[in-house]
Amino acid sequence: MSNSHQPEVRPYLITKKLVPENQETPIHFINGDIVSNRLFFRRNHFPYPRFASSFYFLPIEGLVHNPKVFSLQQIYSLPSKTIKVVLECSGDKRELFNPKVYGEQWGKGAISQGIWKGVPLRSLLAHTGLLDTAKEIVFEGHDYGERPDSSQLYRFSRSLPIEKALDPDTIIAYEYNNQPIPFKHGFPLRLIVPGWYAMASVKWVKKIIVIDKEFKGPFQADDYVYYPNKENDSGKFPVTTNNVNSTIKYPLNRKLLHSGVYEITGIAWTGNGHIAKVEISFDGGQTWATCQLTSSSKKYAWVCWNYKWEVLKKGEYNILSKATDSKGNVQPLEPMWNRKGYGYNAIDRIKVKIE
């Protein structure tokens, strides 16, 4: 009997919350290194904004020589930059922290990757100029609402230090994978900050303001801050660069397998430099073997890796993966525990049973 009429089986996003919408990428079922619009993870603090995008303008104001309002047409006409970037929610893998932490309990799928095209932010700022007193650049999103700790209305706003804002790879993007950015991912304009956790890549950019002090908005001063102490705020510091990390995609955790030869696959990424090597262990980390990197290791992009595993003996196996980047950062055995559960990057581990 022909199978030609059987429906195609496709993965779906993994829903964590519907309002505001928070959904994970089914990372274990993503092949290659580009995630489609449909399967790109969704992270929102507020409901989706409402605005008439046909009348969309982007003002740059504050401590600039010439405040300016850019139309979309002007932005599209400027020299563009295209860049492949991992965007990882800083709460990715939060559910793995021990002791447990409050917040959206993301598994391993609050991460996606694709090709963004836009205008380097520094090109736009070249049209306005910066005053000597400029210290940070604030990006206001169109999305707003109440925070859990307050009935006051807040807009999602974040800042970048001048050096990061002027990095040639920091762009105001308008395309994802050669299409206009999907509305749910920031259409028509989204800031993309390669190498930093995704909260920095503000969606639906409404306004850019240059300031001469530290920005104190709640999504900068309260959230997206590492609090290493359970009882107080001592030692706190901001969430910025992606930690070196890896995820085993196949086999799935707690899978039953027969003895034989298996190709173990995964991804690895870092915000610093590029991935230099990925290692794998089958004995709980006592010994490590080097994996093969199957995609080129580029700055800002994840690498795909694999390892051929021949297993003949029955029993339970702990499989661990550990990435090292070109700056010498190595995944730790334990994550840096912090009160809000950001930046989890401990060695990835799964268990399988050979029957």
Automatic annotation (TrEMBL):
Residue span, Moybdenum cofactor oxidoreductase dimerisation domain: 241-354
CDD domains from the UniProt entry: SO_family_Moco_dimer
Matches recorded under InterPro entries: Ig_E-set, MoCF_OxRdtse_dimer, Mopterin_OxRdtase_euk, OxRdtase_Mopterin-bd_dom, OxRdtase_Mopterin-bd_sf
Entry keywords, A to Z: Metal-binding, Molybdenum, Oxidoreductase
Keyword Oxidoreductase in record: yes
Top-level taxon of the source organism: Bacteria
Sections of the chain in a coiled coil: none
Record-given protein name: Sulfite oxidase
